[in-house]
Amino acid sequence: METRSLKKKVEKERKTEKMAMVKKGYTQTQTLIQRRGSGSIGDDTMKIVDPIAALVDEIKSLRQELRENRQEMKEDLKESIRDIREEIKEARLEIRKDFKKEIDNMGKRMDKFSSELNKNQKEIEKLKDKNNMIEKMTMEISKKQETQQSLDWTNELRYRDRCIKIRGLKESQGENLEKRIIKPLADFIKIEEEIMNLEIDKLFRVNSQQAKDKKLPRDVVICFVRTKFKELIIQESYANKLIVEDTEIKIFKDIHPQIMIERQKYKSLVLTLNKMEINYKWDRIEGLSFLYKQKRYKIDNIDIANELEEKLKNETKNMNEEKNSFKEWKNSSYRQERKEKREERILMKTKETKENTGEDEQLIELETEDTGDQE
Fold first, then answer.
1. Average pLDDT over residues 122-131
2. Has residue 7 been placed in a domain?
3. Pairing between strand 242-244 and 247-253?
4. Where in the sequence is the domain holding 366, given as residue range(s)?
5. How far, in Å, CA of 25 to CA of 38, rounded?
6. Domains in the chain: how many in total?
7. Are 153 and 145 in contact (CB under 8 A)?
8. Is residue 20 a part of any domain in this protein?
9. Per-residue pLDDT averaged across 280-296, rounded?
10. Could you give the angle at the alpha carbon of 246 between the alpha carbons of 221 and 190, nearest 5°?
11. What pLDDT is attached to residue 20?
């Protein structure tokens, strides 16, 4: 490619030189013609060169050279296009080779990745099997724990069903609770002290940090052999007061603290039931039950408790509105009745006054007649 460009430059330089020579010859012929026209002697011997013919020959040669140059340029373009195509083919081949290599590498990597995935899947399946085994074991353990907890709860509730708490008994150092409590309890339910002593199983004070902080006497728990005596004492506490050492003692049922915490969830519902004067009963472990509009409700879920509370509040609101409207109607009707009664009374009084005035006139006439006769 470089040699061809150099050849083209040389040929262009030659063409320019030839054109300059032609121009120079043309100017020389013009000068010769001028000299011959001036009439100098000896000019006939000189040869006259035709400049137009020289120009035509030069143009022909230039056309021939242009044709040759065009042909050479076409050949050069064809060769360059061939070279470019060959280079493109080589580049494509190289790209294909590189692409094949990359695809082969990617295939190998994918094979490795798939093999690793298969291994991981197998490991995951093993872990799932282990996890299922662990879940089954945990479920069995949780069931056993629940059954054991329910048994513990039932046993503890049975034990607490035979117990009561008394609150307000002052503490003293080295106190003997049996001497202080057994006799007043026996007198409270009107039985002998020996029988009461035999019916009591345990008697102790509760360890309460809250009572210590507030500097209050701790509660005393009394557990009986039979629930009969516990029920007798609680029933008697509704009617009478237990007095021990000139102090009033409060009597409560012995309820588990966890049950008391669970019952706090239903505090709002209990307040509405108290406002509506609806009697309710706590269930043994959780929830409560009551009778409303000849329908028994048993609540053991906080969501159901909230829904029922809203329902009761709406009903009480409607009932209050109806009561108020009835009172207004009653007051208006009562006022109308009172007005009518007042009018009747006024009419009666006017009639009585008229009748009384007529009787008085008759009496006056009679009296005048009597006086006239006496005269």
1. 87
2. no
3. antiparallel
4. 255-375
5. 20
6. 3
7. no
8. no
9. 82
10. 65
11. 63
